[in-house]
UniProtKB/TrEMBL annotation:
Keywords: Endoplasmic reticulum, Membrane, Transmembrane, Transmembrane helix. The lineage of its organism: Eukaryota, Fungi, Fungi incertae sedis, Mucoromycota, Mucoromycotina. It is a multi-pass membrane protein. Its main location: endoplasmic reticulum. Residues 103-278 form the Reticulon domain. The chain crosses the membrane at residues 106-128, 134-156. One of its GO terms (cellular component) is endoplasmic reticulum membrane. It is found in: Endoplasmic reticulum membrane. PROSITE patterns: RETICULON (PS50845). It comes from the Eukaryota. This is Reticulon-like protein.
């Protein structure tokens, strides 16, 4: 019995040693490099949801070909490259969907405060920059902000000094959180990195769509873009650019929201207007066709008459030219005859 217990203890100890070799301990391990700052930054960016974040190989980062490509002339696209291309296409689709959803949220006032602030900011910026320069607006804003804080800080320190009888140096500054030496960064790098990546993705998407339009990937899309650009060119030649942009922004923020709130009434009015337009077209279409036929016949008759008159004028001109030529020839013959006669008499 004792031998059996000893054998079981040895077997359990052996199993524990095997499992401990394959398991990952929670404590610090030797011969393992700590995570690099770049990896921690990538993990942080990944948590922020940055789109199109792919790792580049060392050869791709310096613009050189890999040895496998240099050795084999018939290099074929690998599965990894195909997956990278598919991931980029999916990322671009995600960016397009994200931009569309955010734009719809803005113009349909899903968050009224944000939509109102953006609309008011755009319109106020257009109005201010129309009458004043950017330097004037910046200097005025800085003057108002610094002047208000100057009065506020000194008044606040004076009130505390009078109330407590202590000097102002013994109190904390009202904005001590923002002006202390060991403060948090006013511009967080992680958020800036996220928005920079997002802006680059949006610019890349816009550049790709512009290239497809310019190089005529789809005739219908390019034709529609050409008509829109021509309409904008015509409108901006008649009205100032800032007024046009302001009207466009105002229409984007009001028409979809108004249509969503009063969709039934607007659809009824549009249907009624369409029916009236159809009745007017049926009523005056025959009259317009008749007048068009009469005017066309008159134009054809006038063109035929003008053609006959022009042809007669051409014939008369030809006859006159031919008569003048014959008269000139006769005079030349008479002059030559008279010269020969005088020569013979001499």
């Amino acid at each position: 019995m004792t031998q059996i217990l000893q054998q079981q203890q040895q077997q359990a100890l052996y199993n524990f040693n095997v499992n401990s070799n394959s398991a990952v301990s929670a404590g610090p391990r030797k011969n393992i490099a700590p995570p690099s700052p770049q990896m921690s930054q990538d993990d942080l960016v990944r948590e922020l949801g940055v789109i199109d974040k792919h790792k580049d190989s060392p050869t791709a980062s310096i613009g050189l070909l890999s040895p496998s490509v240099c050795e084999s002339p018939t290099h074929q696209t690998s599965d990894e490259e195909i997956e990278v291309v598919e991931d980029e296409e999916e990322d671009m689709n995600d960016i397009t969907l994200l931009m569309y959803m955010e734009f719809m949220d803005l113009i349909y006032w899903e968050i009224p405060g944000r939509s109102g602030i953006i609309l008011a900011g755009i319109l106020s910026s257009l109005i201010l920059t129309r009458y004043y320069s950017l330097l004037y607006v910046f200097a005025a804003s800085l003057t108002i902000l610094t002047g208000f804080n100057l009065i506020f800080v000194n008044a606040y320190n004076l009130i505390r000094t009078v109330w407590t009888g202590l000097p102002a140096e013994e109190f904390l500054h009202p904005y001590h959180i923002h002006i202390r030496q060991q403060r948090s960064k006013l511009i967080p790098r992680d958020i800036i990195d996220y928005y920079v990546h997002k802006s680059v993705d949006i610019l890349e998407l816009a550049a790709q769509h512009t290239a497809k339009i310019v190089f005529v990937e789809d005739t219908k899309t390019t034709g529609l873009a050409c008509l829109v650009s021509a309409a904008i060119y015509l409108l901006t030649s008649l009205i100032p650019t800032k007024v046009f942009f302001g009207l466009l922004v105002l229409a984007l923020f009001t028409i979809p929201y108004f249509y969503e709130k009063h969709q039934d009434e607007v659809d009824d009015q549009l249907q009624l207007m369409q029916e009236k337009a159809q009745v007017l077209m049926d009523k005056y279409g025959i009259v317009v066709c008749q007048h068009a036929t009469v005017y066309t016949k008159q134009i054809m008759d006038a063109s035929v008459g003008l053609g006959g008159i022009l042809q007669q004028q051409i014939q008369n001109l030809r006859a006159k030219v031919s008569g003048d030529v014959s008269t000139a020839a006769a005079k030349t013959t008479t002059v030559n005859t008279s010269v020969d006669t005088k020569t013979g008499k001499q």
